[in-house]
C-alpha cells in the first residue's frame, strides 16, 4: 500500500488545524499593533506575524507539491 497519499492528507489536515488554531492569536496581535502604534514591542509582534504568514505560505507550497506528486505517482 502506498503511504504517500496518507502522508499528504495528514500533512494538509494537521497544517490547516495549526493555522486555524493560531489565527485568533494573530488577529489579536494585529489589533494590538494597530491600537498601540508607538509601543516598543511592535517590532517583535510584527516579526511573529510575518513569520506566521511565511510559514502559512510554505505550508501551502509544500501541500501543493505533495498533491501534485501524489497524483503523478497515482496516475503516472
Shape: elongated
For this structure, the quaternary state is single chain
Q: Note the total helix count.
A: 2
Strand content: under 5%
Helix content: over 70%
Low-confidence stretches: none
**Alpha-beta classification:** mainly alpha
Total count of domains: 1
Main sheet specs:
none
**From N to C, what is the helix and strand string?**
HH
- What's the mean pLDDT score? 91
State the end-to-end CA separation. Answer: 16 Å
Task: Report the radius of gyration as a whole number of Å.
Answer: 17 Å
Keywords: Membrane, Transmembrane, Transmembrane helix
Structure description:
With 76 residues, the chain is mostly helical. It has one domain. The chain is 87% helix and 0% strand. It is built from 2 helices and no strands. It has helices at residues 4-35, 42-75. The chain is elongated and about 55 Å long.
Q: Short summary of the structure?
A:
This protein has 76 residues and is mainly α. 87% of the residues lie in helices and 0% in strands. The longest helix is centred in the last third of the chain and has 34 residues, at 42-75.
Describe how the helices and strands are arranged.
Elements: H1 4-35, H2 42-75
Transmembrane segments: 6-22, 49-69
Keywords: Membrane, Transmembrane, Transmembrane helix
Observed structural traits:
single chain, 76 residues, mainly alpha, 2 helices, 87% helix, 0% strand, elongated
